[in-house]
């Protein structure tokens, strides 16, 4: 790095130019051309017309090809902090709920991950009813692990297909079961065919 650039980099930002603390911003663009997990924002504190350059985002467990990837969308409200108060070096610290962007409805004993379209992963710690649930946006298709009786329940409005190297299709109540393959073997100590 040339000495002039180093001096410029190390030169203090004037106190009058600093933004101390954090401020609210609105996400304007999530199509990072370099795919580095950055967004562009507008800072209402400074201007509702000017858009930032690409802003890095804070996230748990970021690493090479790994981490928690839960990205804000355009028009989401986020909280922005500034490195050493420098308005040219913002970072998105997290997203914010508001009266116009309400949180998902959940009990205090639940942790939920809810996508924009409504898909859910629910971790329910309600004493005596602990469960883990994965639910699609319709609420009609779900997988539930129930701790109390160590059971797994799969519910769907359509068919259930399980595949492994060949084709195996199991259909629900009142529907024929179709097992296909070059050879089908059923092994059981006792088997009843109706």
Automatic annotation (TrEMBL):
Domain Gp5/Type VI secretion system Vgr protein OB-fold: start-end pairs: 24-97
Pfam families in UniProt: Phage_base_V
InterPro entries from the UniProt entry: Gp5/Vgr_OB, Vgr_OB-fold_dom_sf
Superkingdom field: Bacteria
Name the UniProt record assigns to this protein: Phage tail protein
């Amino acid at each position: 790095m040339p000495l002039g650039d180093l001096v410029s980099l190390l030169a203090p930002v004037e106190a009058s130019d600093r933004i101390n603390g954090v401020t609210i911003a609105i996400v304007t663009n999530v199509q990072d051309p370099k795919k580095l997990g950055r967004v562009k924002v507008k800072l209402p504190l400074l201007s509702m017309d000017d858009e930032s350059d690409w802003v890095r985002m804070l996230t748990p467990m970021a690493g090479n090809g790994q981490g928690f990837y839960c990205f804000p969308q355009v028009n989401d409200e986020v909280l922005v902090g500034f490195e050493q108060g420098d308005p040219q070096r913002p970072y998105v610290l997290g997203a914010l709920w508001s009266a116009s962007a309400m949180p998902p409805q959940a009990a205090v004993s639940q942790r939920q991950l809810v996508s924009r379209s409504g898909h859910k992963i629910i971790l329910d710690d309600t004493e005596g009813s602990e469960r883990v649930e994965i639910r699609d946006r319709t609420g009609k298709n779900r997988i539930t692990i129930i701790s109390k009786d160590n059971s797994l329940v799969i519910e769907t409005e359509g068919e259930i297909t399980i595949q492994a190297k060949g084709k195996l299709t199991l259909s629900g109540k009142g529907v024929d079961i179709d097992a296909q393959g070059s050879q089908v073997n059923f092994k059981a100590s006792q088997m009843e065919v109706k």
